Task: inverse folding
C-alpha cells in the first residue's frame, strides 16, 4: 500500500484542487486505482467541500492537557500564580471569589500551556492535569471513496497528533480493504502537521506556484522532504502567470535533483468548479487545467505503481 | 531470541515504519520461529520525549536488537545505555524482508545517532 501526500510549502497554491482531481481520477479516470482519501489539513479542512461526504463515524480527539485547580483544596497561597510563565492563573476576585466562581484560584484553559509547573509546585496538591477534547475526526464515505478527515477546534494545538490519527485510520482502512493507495491532502508550511502528513509517504507531490513566496516556500518544503528522505515530484500550478518564475522553479528542481513533471495553466474553470463543489476534472474534463491534471495523474499513478522509474 | 521492529500496522505482514520514536507499532518477533506480538509505541503520540519513551519500552522488553529507519540522539543514548543493538533496515520495506536480512547479517549496525534531534518546543 502506497501513500501519496500533496504538499506545497506556501498556502493557496492548489493542493486541495489537485487532491480533489486525483480523488476523482483515481475513482473514475481512464486507469482507475482504488484509493482511500485523507484530509491532513486539520487546521482548515476543506477537501469535503468538493467530495460531499456522508459521515459514518465521529470520534473525539484528545489533545494536550491543561491544569485544573480543585477549589475545595486551594488555600489561595499564590504559588501557582508565581510559577506560571503563561499568566494562566486567575486570582480570586474580591467581589465574587475566583473567576471560576469558587473561593480560590482558577486556570484560564486558553492561556495554559500544559507545562504542569503549578501541579508540581502546589503545596496543597490541589492541581491536576486534565486532557482536553481538542477536536473531532471523522470516517466518511464520499462519492470517490472513503474519506478520513478532522476538525481541530479554535485555538487548539497538537494538530500534528490529529494528523497522525487521521492518517493512521486511513491506513488501517486501506489495509482492511486491500486498497493500493492513500491520497493525503497535506497542510501548508513545513511544521509539525506537515511532517506528520509526510511521515511514511511513498511519494510527495509538491504543488508549486510561480510567485516569489511560492518559489521560496517550494525550496523549504523540498528541504523538508529531502531531510525525511521522502521522494518528491513537483508540478507548477497557474504556470503561465509568471514565466520567469517557471524558469526559477526549473532551476530549483535541477539544483535539488527533483523531477518537474507538469504544468497546470491558469484557468478560471478551476474557480468555477470550486464554486460548484466539484473537482475540476469532474466539472469540465476538456478544460486546459483538467487536461494537465489528467496527464499529471498518469505520471503520479505510474510512479506509485513502479516507484523510481522516470515517467516524465 | 527477541528482536523489535518499528512498523506501520500491528502484524508480521506489515510494512516498516522508518521512525523509531514516533513509529506507530513495535513488533516483537522471534526471528527463528517468527512468533510475534504487536504493541502500540507509547512514544507515537507523546508531546515530547518520544525517542526516550520508545527506548524505555524497548529496554523493558529485554530485546537483543531493534531494527528501524533512524535513531535520533535521545533514543540512541537510551538504547545504548540499555545495551540494545540498533540496526537500520535500509532498503527493506516489509518486516519479513528485514528479518531475512537481519538473519543473513546484511543490516547495518548503528554506532552513532543517524539523524539530528530537534530543539525543544519553546
Result:
Amino acid at each position: 500500500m502506497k501513500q501519496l501526500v500533496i504538499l506545497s510549502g506556501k498556502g493557496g497554491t492548489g493542493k486541495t484542487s489537485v487532491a480533489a482531481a486525483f480523488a476523482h481520477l483515481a475513482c473514475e479516470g481512464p486507469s482507475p486505482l482504488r484509493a482511500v482519501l485523507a484530509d491532513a489539513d486539520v487546521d482548515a479542512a476543506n477537501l469535503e467541500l468538493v467530495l460531499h461526504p456522508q459521515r459514518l463515524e465521529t470520534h473525539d480527539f484528545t489533545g494536550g492537557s491543561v491544569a485544573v485547580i480543585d477549589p475545595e483544596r486551594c488555600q489561595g497561597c499564590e504559588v501557582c500564580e508565581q510559577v506560571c510563565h503563561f499568566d494562566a492563573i486567575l486570582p480570586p476576585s474580591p467581589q465574587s471569589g475566583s473567576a471560576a466562581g469558587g473561593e480560590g484560584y482558577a486556570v484560564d484553559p486558553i492561556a495554559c500551556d500544559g507545562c504542569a509547573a503549578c501541579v508540581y509546585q502546589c503545596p496543597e496538591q490541589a492541581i491536576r492535569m486534565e486532557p482536553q477534547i481538542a477536536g473531532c475526526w471523522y470516517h466518511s464515505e464520499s462519492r470517490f471513496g472513503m474519506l478520513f478527515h478532522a476538525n481541530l477546534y479554535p485555538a487548539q494545538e497538537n494538530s500534528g497528533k490529529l494528523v497522525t490519527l487521521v492518517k493512521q485510520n486511513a491506513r488501517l482502512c486501506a489495509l482492511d480493504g486491500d486498497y493500493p493507495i492513500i491520497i493525503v491532502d497535506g497542510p501548508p508550511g513545513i511544521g509539525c502537521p506537515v511532517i506528520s502528513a509526510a511521515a511514511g509517504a511513498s511519494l510527495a507531490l509538491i504543488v508549486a506556484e510561480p510567485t516569489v513566496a511560492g518559489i521560496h516556500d517550494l525550496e523549504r518544503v523540498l528541504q523538508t522532504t529531502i531531510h525525511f528522505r521522502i521522494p518528491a515530484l513537483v508540478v507548477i500550478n497557474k504556470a503561465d502567470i509568471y514565466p520567469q518564475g517557471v524558469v526559477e522553479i526549473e532551476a530549483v528542481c535541477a539544483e535539488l535533483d527533483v523531477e518537474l513533471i507538469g504544468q497546470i495553466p491558469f484557468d478560471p474553470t478551476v474557480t468555477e468548479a470550486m464554486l460548484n463543489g466539484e473537482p475540476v476534472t469532474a466539472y469540465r474534463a476538456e478544460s486546459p487545467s483538467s487536461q494537465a491534471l489528467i496527464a499529471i495523474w498518469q505520471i503520479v499513478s505510474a510512479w506509485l505503481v513502479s516507484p523510481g522509474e522516470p515517467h516524465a | 531470541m527477541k528482536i523489535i521492529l518499528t512498523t506501520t500496522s500491528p502484524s508480521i505482514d506489515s510494512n516498516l515504519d522508518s521512525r523509531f520514536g514516533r513509529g506507530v507499532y513495535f513488533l516483537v518477533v522471534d526471528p527463528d520461529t517468527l512468533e510475534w506480538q504487536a504493541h502500540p509505541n507509547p512514544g507515537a503520540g507523546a508531546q515530547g520525549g518520544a525517542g526516550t519513551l520508545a527506548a524505555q519500552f524497548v529496554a523493558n522488553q529485554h530485546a537483543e536488537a531493534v531494527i528501524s529507519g533512524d535513531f535520533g540522539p535521545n533514543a540512541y543514548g537510551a538504547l545504548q545505555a540499555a545495551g540494545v543493538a540498533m540496526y537500520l533496515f535500509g532498503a527493506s520495506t516489509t518486516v519479513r524482508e528485514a528479518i531475512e536480512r537481519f538473519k543473513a547479517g546484511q543490516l547495518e549496525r548503528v554506532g552513532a545517532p543517524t539523524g539530528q534531534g530537534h530543539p525543544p518546543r519553546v
In short: Residues 159-176 of chain A form the longest helix (18 residues). Chain A has a mean pLDDT of 92. The CA atoms of residues 31 and 298 of chain A lie 8 Å apart. Chain A touches chain B through 14 residues (CB under 8 Å).
